[in-house]
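Project standup — Tuesday

K.O.: blocked on the structure for the chain from last sprint. Re-posting the sequence here as requested.
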Amino acid sequence: MLHMILTIVQVFSSVAIIALVLLQRGKGADAGAGFGAGASGTVFGARGARTALSRATAVFAAIFMINSLALAYMGRQAATEPKSILDEAAQTAPQPAKRLPAAPPPATPSSGTH
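H.V.: unblocked you, prediction finished:
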């Protein structure tokens, strides 16, 4: 159950990091602002968007790293004893049916008087 929750958090944090990185403007975008391309930064202010998106990216990156370590630790604990395919097949193979006790040998006629 915990492994599934951590996996979901891992996927969510990785998608969030990808989305946040794609939303951020690159370093070369500042050069374009001098020629009239600076209108895209007016939603958060001149530096507000960069700071908020950078902080959110850092938070999700920290969550991603801690979650990766937790998943790696849990995976190592689950695989403490190495198993081969033959070991797993032996565990899942059906057990042979119990044998009935051997029947007594058939009686032989006694070699007495005839």
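K.O.: great, moving the ticket to review. The CA atoms of residues 6 and 70 lie 8 Å apart. The chain has four helices and no strands.
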